[in-house]
Amino acid sequence: MGMEKIQYLAQAYFHQDYDLEAENPIQVLTEFRDAEPPEVVEELRDAMERVLTSGVCEEELTALWLDRAGACYDPRQDGMEMSVWFRQMIDALL
Q1: CA of 29: how far to CAs of 55, 58, 59, 81, 90, in Å?
Q2: CA 94, 87, 52, 67: dihedral to nearest 10 degrees?
Q3: What is the pTM of this model?
Q4: Distance (Å, rounded) from C-alpha 52 to C-alpha 42?
Q5: Which of 15, 20, 66, 76 is the most exposed place for a label (fewest CB within 10 A)?
Q6: pLDDT attached to residue 1
Q7: In whole angstroms, what is the distance from residue 89 CA to residue 3 CA?
Q8: Alpha helices (runs of H) in the chain, residue ranges in sequence order
Q9: Helix orientation angle between 25-35 and 3-13, rounded to the nearest 10 degrees
Q10: Cα-flanking dihedrals φ and ψ of residue 73, to 5°?
Q11: What are the pLDDT digits (tens) for 65-88?
């Protein structure tokens, strides 16, 4: 499913101090897009698309992003569903 790509984004960019390095979470994704090779960005986008189209529920997406991938940003604290966050991440990586 490309879980290693999602883990890389979560652990390398959404670590515990991510909010000190960017004004908002979308800016973190912009930095990822600009810093990483285009094929890495495309592989991550494809992996996220596959996750969303696999029919996982919100709870499974939450577990994938926070527990399995190890991200320190929880979009639910900003009133956003995890599926909306995944869609925003994909859009930000275009």
Answers
A1: 24, 21, 23, 18, 9
A2: 110
A3: 0.94
A4: 15
A5: 20
A6: 61
A7: 15
A8: 3-13, 18-21, 25-35, 38-53, 58-62, 82-92
A9: 110
A10: -95, 125
A11: 999 999 999 999 999 999 999 999
| CA distance linking residue 6 with residue 88, whole number of Å | 14
Separation of alpha carbons 20 and 58, rounded Å: 28
| pLDDT at residue 86 in the model | 97
In angstroms, the CA 1 to CA 51 distance is 7
- Residue 73 and residue 92 in contact, taking contact as beta carbons nearer than 8 Å: no
Q: According to the model, what pLDDT value does residue 2 have?
A: 80
Cβ neighbours of residue 10 closer than 8 Å, sequence gap 6 or more: 65, 69, 70, 71
